[in-house]
Amino acid sequence: MRAAAARAASTTHRILLPLFLFAALCESDPDLLLDYCVADTAAAASLHLNGLPCIDPARARAEHFATSALSRATNPSSATPFGFNATVTSPAASLPGANAQGLAMARVDLAPGGVAPPHSHPRASEVALVLAGSVLVGFADTSYRLYTQLLRAGEAFVFPRGMVHFMYNVDVAAPAVVLSGLNSQSPGAQLVPLSAFLTEPRMPEEILEKAFKINGQDVHRIQRNLGG
Ligand SMILES: *[C@@H]1O[C@H](CO)[C@@H](O)[C@H](O)[C@H]1NC(C)=O
Fold first, then answer.
1. Alpha-carbon distance 57 to 73, whole Å?
2. Which of 4, 73, 129, 168 could bond 115 through an S-S bridge, CB–CB 3.0 to 4.6 Å?
């Protein structure tokens, strides 16, 4: 009995060990914490970092791992033309203890009828929990299938990494608050309307006309409406 178990264990070992080594060798590159990282070809011996440099661990205090950045309501109506505002924790500004932990949190304030317009986080999956209000959330996958759900307070939804998604406060009388967890300390965000219509410098008008099947006047109207 014991011999059979030992044989089974050693077989498992023989199969798993090469698999494990193979997986370790094939590990992908570490994730970028920036949109890009142009190589400094002139630097002879540079410092190699992923995230921010660390303080002496002996100087760490509990406060480094705590933040009140998400406790304050912001004013979503005046923050953006969409009626939303997002506060994201960052190791540099509000949560040093999260450095190199691969996570961030975000508070999204939505005005009555406000929307966090279609956007994506290139470096993070997100799980969004509605703290207050009724929020219609959704994302589109790469085959353009749309997944939507109406969330009430206490309910949560996952936006897979990089997928274009939105949050919409369907209540036209009351604000909504969403709290999100993201699995990067630098999730990044690209809002679709801004990536198309409000880049600096502007995308050539012909591109926008052809991409959206609109004319030059439409392009300018949209840019004005977005505050550009
Ligand atoms: C929007 O949120 C940011 C981050 O918390 C904050 O700095 C800004 O003051 C807010 N804007 C308004 C209008 O509340």
1. 33
2. 168
Token pair 């997928």: residue: 163
- 219 pLDDT tier (thresholds 50, 70, 90): very high
Does a structural domain hold residue 54? no
Q: Is residue 106 in a domain?
A: yes
Distance CA 91, CA 104 (A): 9
The pLDDT of residue 76: 98
CB 25 within 8 A of CB 18: no
CATH of the domain at 170: 2.60.120.10
* Residue span of the structural domain in which 180 resides: 62-197
The reply to whether omega before 201 is within 30° of 0 (cis) is yes
Residue 19 in this model has a pLDDT that exceeds 60:
no
Lowest mean pLDDT among 15-19, 40-44, 82-86, 198-202: 15-19
Q: pLDDT tens digits, residue range 138-167? A: 999 999 999 999 999 999 999 999 999 999
> What b/e readout covers 77-110, taking b as 16+ CB neighbours within 10 angstroms?
bebbebbbbbbbbbbeebbbebbeebebbbbbbb
Ligand 1: centre distance to CA 75 (Å): 7
Distance 191 CA to ligand 1 centre (A): 17
Ligand 1 proximal residues by C-beta, below 6 Å: 74-75, 78-79, 85, 87
Q: What distance in Å separates the CA atoms of residue 50 and residue 102, rounded to the nearest whole number?
A: 10
What is the total count of domains within the chain? Answer: 1
